[in-house]
Amino acid sequence: MAWTTRSTRTVYENRWIHVREDEVTGPHGDGIYGVVRMQHPAVFVVALDERERVCFVELERYTTGRSLEVPAGGSDGEDPLHAAKRELLEETGVTASDWSSLGRMNALNGIADAPEYVFLARGLTMTDAAVSQREEGIDAVRWIPFAEALELVASGEVSDGETIGALALAGIRLGRFR
């Protein structure tokens, strides 16, 4: 049985998210469904240097605490590749000469409409242009060998779902899971 939306109302909205409450009829009958819609897609960057190390940022998240993640952020309505290049530079001071799209993901698809684009960045150059690390609460940029990054996922030290998904897409593209 398909879902039917009988009515919808906006509960909250800001420049990043839109929250609505829908009266629905679904497989189990009538009910209320809360949905968070991101105002713009997010981007995630798996930046891999010549030594096969992945670039991570370490920061404190208000919602979940300490986190080790790949560089990421909102697209702010711009082209996802352009946004990925901007986020990598802003968060890490790194630029890349070789960019590949790894695919699209959906965050929290049980409660959210939150599209995400994942990119692989290679041919890296370090600059001094990490302009918003302090603004975004980034405490450190860490370079971790790809295999060790997967071990950190397995141990739970890397627990950000989008980072795990981005690493999986990169691992598939790079042939690391065969």
Tags for this entry?
11 strands, Nucleoside Triphosphate Pyrophosphohydrolase, alpha+beta, four-stranded mixed beta sheet, 3 helices, 178 residues
Put the structure in a nutshell.
The protein is α+β, with helices and mostly antiparallel strands and 178 residues long.
Characterization of the model:
The protein is α+β, with helices and mostly antiparallel strands and 178 residues long. The chain has helices spanning 80-92, 146-155, 161-173, and strands at 4-13, 17-26, 29-38, 42-47, 53-61, 65-69, 72-74, 94-106, 112-113, 115-126, 138-145. It is elongated, with a radius of gyration of 18 Å. The N and C termini lie far apart (38 Å). The mean pLDDT is 93.
CATH topology grouping of the largest domain: Nucleoside Triphosphate Pyrophosphohydrolase
Mean pLDDT: 93
Order of helices and strands: EEEEEEEHEEEEHH
Largest sheet at a glance? 4 strands, mixed
Basic shape: elongated
The residue fraction in helices comes out at 10-25%
Query: What's the CATH architecture of the largest domain?
Result: Alpha-Beta Complex
Q: What is the structural class? A: alpha+beta
Number of domains: 2
Strands of the widest sheet, in order across it, are: 1-2-3-9
Q: What's the name of the CATH homologous superfamily of the largest domain? A: Nucleoside Triphosphate Pyrophosphohydrolase
The whole-angstrom Rg is 18 Å
> What's the total helix number?
3
- Give the uncertain stretches in residue-range form: none
Protein name: ADP-ribose pyrophosphatase
Cofactor: Mg(2+)
Pfam family, one: NUDIX
GO molecular function, one term: hydrolase activity
